[in-house]
Amino acid sequence: MKFLLTLILFLSLSVPAISAQDDSEIVVAAIKDILHDFTYQLKPVHPGCVREFDVSLADSPPPIVRAVDVRACVTSNEFYMPFNTGEDGYISYEYDLGEGEKGSFAYKYLGKSDSGLFVLATRSSTGGTMVAESLFLIKDSFKNYWSFDNENKKTLDRRLIITCIGQITLGDRDTGKVTLKENKLILGPSQYREKAVTIDLGKGDKK
Predict the structure, then answer these.
(1) Angle subtended by helix axes 20-33 and 2-14, to nearest 10
(2) Residue 38, SS3?
(3) Which terminus of the chain faces fewer neighbouring Cβ atoms within 10 Å, N or C?
(4) Omega before 82 within 30 of 0, i.e. cis
(5) Pairing between strand 43-44 and 67-69?
(6) Torsion angle, CA of 170/124/34/3, rounded to 10 degrees?
(7) Residues 167 and 124 in one domain
(8) Burial category of 61 from C-beta neighbours within 10 Å (exposed 0-12, middle 13-18, buried 19 and up)
(9) Which of 10-19, 51-60, 96-105 is predicted with the least confidence, judged by mean pLDDT?
């Protein structure tokens, strides 16, 4: 009950005022849709939704798609494929590349910074031997969306949105250990780095 009251208080401060009759419905929807340890409705977010932010090593960030509606994504026919959680904590799935080829994408939740950023380690393979690894910095928020029925009657829907506010390209099978401590993201030594690198996440996107 204490957690629920705290959550309602947080939402009441962070959700813009709409109308008195809509408040209770929006709070209930927001509680149902809130992310906890990067899970949605007690399940990991489908890796296909995270893959929307992926950028190939041939290109460079930022990604073309920077924001994803979580509920729309996890319930879509596009990501009907099952996903698996490996012993190493990576959540992965396979998808068709065409001509009998399969691609794969996986992510691992590393934690949430004090500044409110979800940090995900990702692995992407589009055939061949390369496994491209990156770190995604994700911010969650609620946005308004107007739904219209067959009579064009509108209904306000409060949607959970994840936004990629930054990416760190690690390369092909980076051997360094990545850790998150409060607002410090630490990239350990690897074949690409002689020394550990510390990145401050304390000045994330406040919007």
Answers:
(1) 120
(2) coil
(3) N
(4) no
(5) unpaired
(6) -60
(7) yes
(8) middle
(9) 10-19
Distance spanning both ends of the chain, measured CA to CA: 29
Joined tokens for residue 173: 């099978």
Hey, what amino acid is at 18? Answer: I
CA 34/CA 6 separation, integer angstroms: 13
Distance CA 136, CA 162 (A): 11
Q: In the numeric block, which tokens belong to residue 6? A: 């705290």
Q: What pTM value is reported for the model?
A: 0.81
Nearest to 70 by CA among 45, 89, 95, 88: 45
Number of domains in the chain: 2
CA-CA distance, 201 to 182, in Å (whole number)? 9
Are residues 76 and 144 both part of a single domain? yes
pLDDT tens per residue, range 190-207: 999 999 999 999 965 555
What whole-number distance in Å separates Cα of residue 33 and Cα of residue 41?
A: 7
Residue 184 located in a structural domain? no
Do 78 and 169 have their domain in common?
yes
153-178: per-residue pLDDT in tens? 999 999 999 999 999 999 999 999 99
145 with 80, same domain?
A: yes
